[in-house]
Amino acid sequence: MLRQNIFLSTLASLLIASSAWGQGVDYIKAHYTKYEHRIEMRDGKRLFTSVYVPKDDSQAYPILMKRTPYSVRPYGVDQYPEQLGPSPLFAKAGYIFVNQDVRGRWMSEGEFVQMRPHRANKQSEEIDESTDTWDTVEWLVKNIPGNNGKVGIAGISYPGFYTAAGIIDSHPAIKAASPQAPVNDWFAGDDWHHNGAFFLAHMFNWMSRNGRLRPEPTKNFPAATFDYGTPDGYEFFRRIKTLGEIEEKYLKGAVPFWTESIKHEAYDDFWKSRNIRPHLKGVKPAVMTVGGWFDAENLFGALETYKYIERNNPDTVNMLVMGPWRHGGWSSGDGASFGDIPWNSNTSVFYRKEIEFPFFEFHLKGQGKLDHPEAWVFETGTNQWRKHDHWPPRTAVPQSLFLRADERLAFDAPQEQQGVDEYVSDPSKPVPYMNVVAPGMKAEYLVADQRFASQRPDVLVYQTDVLEDDVTIVGPIEVNLHVSTSGTDS
């Protein structure tokens, strides 16, 4: 009997704790009223917007908004989601939550353009994502009862791009923004290309599902699934000889951005116009950019968004948070490990409670004391958070590592004037990126044990002698590599 009473007491505590966190549809229904609006933009197109307003009208609340191409589901004023805001902490604290289908997606009118280029010099009715954000915010602060006139924006990945694009020449009501794993340049480093190298498996997997046209507003536009016909993505892509074969055999003209993008194999105007970095100007709100060291998709975007906002807006409060996470790994789970590597703490829980939530509470409500550093950076190896007043840290000392003969790596430059290491590459037997069977790009590959590849004759591995002292690597890494090839395409 004693054990049963203890169990029931513990269960009751868990239920109370769950409710306090504001998790679940029932909590959201009990504390928020949902509205649906079609907000008109300056060119007459209307964007579908869901608004959740606290039922407690004894105070005014800030607006916290997410703009997304991935749908604001569930649709219907009587349909509620499991969670509002970046984490359950926000629903408990009280915000007006706004979710919007971006132009041309799901229930919003207009034409959808992948990574819509920013217009630096717009005419009166010309639009881009900054104007759509401005027009939305202008309408919200004037028409949503009970708002305190302050707006925050947050989003992960593609919504991270819309967050960053939305604070260019930002509306004065926007006081806080958090672009998280934001896409900012699809050729230089994000998603489809890493320093120009084409990530075929990743782009094909995403575009085959999410790149299809939506001809008119709809609540039912499920992402198409693609049947690889095999669980082995290595074998699937190895059999394909040309990108044209993918278009003709598998996509068949249904994904126009794929069709267009494979025509542009160099960093030409097609890609440069989709580089948002030089346009990150006129940023007025406090900004907290978030990224993961093991984000296989948008690690580049997080670091570059922070860097360019810092460079172009010297008077703006600009923070960087980098944790030991996969793509979006900070937004759910405890963040205690990734792959086979433990971090010895619940890094995601710490971020949501001690960094993200206080940031918005302070800038949108004036509550709490914000003593965040310029950069919160998780240091792997020692597995601890470091606070820096500048990124990269001013105390960091530049070092050079040199490739040496016999596959050695050293801090001292080689004395010999010339040296060559060579290997034979067989295009019909490419090097696997990971020693597993999977159709696409697995998120874990950045922490995977890749020593299996070192046993191949077409892989060179360079290694230092045993280090006598600990070495901490921080900041950007630049590589100068001199190669020659007998191949015509490599």
Write the layout of secondary structure elements.
Blueprint: H1 2-21, H2 25-31, E1 32-40, E2 46-54, E3 61-68, H3 88-93, E4 96-101, H4 129-143, E5 147-156, H5 158-166, E6 174-180, E7 193-194, E8 197-198, H6 200-210, H7 233-239, H8 243-251, H9 256-261, H10 269-272, E9 286-292, H11 299-312, E10 318-323, E11 337-338, E12 341-342, H12 347-365, E13 375-379, E14 384-388, E15 402-404, E16 408-410
Helix percent band? 25-40%
Choose one word for the global shape: globular
Computed CA radius of gyration, to the nearest angstrom: 25 Å
Number of distinct helices = 12
Question: Structural class per helix/strand content?
Answer: alpha/beta
pLDDT averaged over residues: 92
Descriptive overview:
The protein is an alpha/beta fold and 490 residues long. It contains twelve helices and 16 strands. The protein has helices at residues 2-21, 25-31, 88-93, 129-143, 158-166, 200-210, 233-239, 243-251, 256-261, 269-272, 299-312, 347-365, and strands spanning 32-40, 46-54, 61-68, 96-101, 147-156, 174-180, 193-194, 197-198, 286-292, 318-323, 337-338, 341-342, 375-379, 384-388, 402-404, 408-410. The strands form four sheets. A ten-stranded mixed beta sheet has the order 1-2-4-3-5-6-9-10-13-14, with helices on both faces. It has a two-stranded antiparallel ribbon with strand order 7-8. Helix 11 links the parallel strand 9 and strand 10 (318-323). The longest helix has 20 residues, at 2-21. It is globular and about 75 Å long. The model is unreliable at 1-22 (pLDDT under 50).
Entry summary:
This protein has 490 residues and is an alpha/beta fold. It has helices spanning 2-21, 25-31, 88-93, 129-143, 158-166, 200-210, 233-239, 243-251, 256-261, 269-272, 299-312, 347-365; strands spanning 32-40, 46-54, 61-68, 96-101, 147-156, 174-180, 193-194, 197-198, 286-292, 318-323, 337-338, 341-342, 375-379, 384-388, 402-404, 408-410. 26% of the residues lie in helices and 18% in strands.
